[in-house]
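# step 3/5: fold
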Amino acid sequence: MRRLIDRPIRSQDAQDLLEGKVTAAELERKAAAKATAKVVERRLPINVNARAAKPLGLAEQRARCRWQRPLAAILAEAMAVNRGLYERLSRSVRGPDWNHPEIYQATFNELWEATKKQIDALEIFCRIEWSD
């Protein structure tokens, strides 16, 4: 364990300058390069595409904030998730242990019925042409 008295009081750059390892000009160039790198990082948008490396304008930022996913896409995703679950359930699904198979069977039956009802409801809901 190091004692506090063994630790240098100054930063590593200041210590190197005092010991003559670097010059003051080199330290200034290093600090300036570090400062400009931070400024460049702050100016970049959060999502930088390969084709567009410029920051978004105010109108583009507002449009991105107000954009809502289309209802048809939300319904299609819900339908796909439920159908995927239904397919997985139709294959064999096993409980963690078979000490209480009646509990697992009851839970499985409830999930099976709920998934089937949700798929039926989504199919009925998708028949209507909804508008946002």
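# step 4/5: annotate
The radius of gyration is 31 Å.
# step 5/5: archive (pending)
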